[in-house]
Design goal:
Shape: elongated
Radius of gyration: 17 Å
Helix content: 55-70%
Largest sheet: none
């Protein structure tokens, strides 16, 4: 495997990467690899690929998302 060294990364950007990595239970290097993988694997020709990538990323967070059907219906009634 190859290595990638990125010079002159802004402090705020690096802090955001580290924070995101901690939130996802990864190291900053692992998080950067995941971001690159997701960004480069999405094809503009297939818009559903981006949705699938996001769904996969959210499944890894182990958060439960409620069904929003009732909220949408309530909003439409207004």
């Amino acid at each position: 495997m190859s290595q990638l060294l990125i010079d002159e990364v802004e402090d705020g950007l690096l802090a955001s990467l580290q924070s995101r990595a901690v939130g996802n239970g990864r190291t900053a290097a692992e998080e950067a690899r995941e971001i690159l993988t997701l960004a480069l694997s999405v094809s503009v020709d297939d818009p559903w690929a981006e949705i699938d990538a996001l769904r996969t990323e959210l499944q890894g967070t182990h958060h439960e998302f409620a069904d929003s059907t009732d909220l949408i219906r309530e909003d439409r009634r207004r």
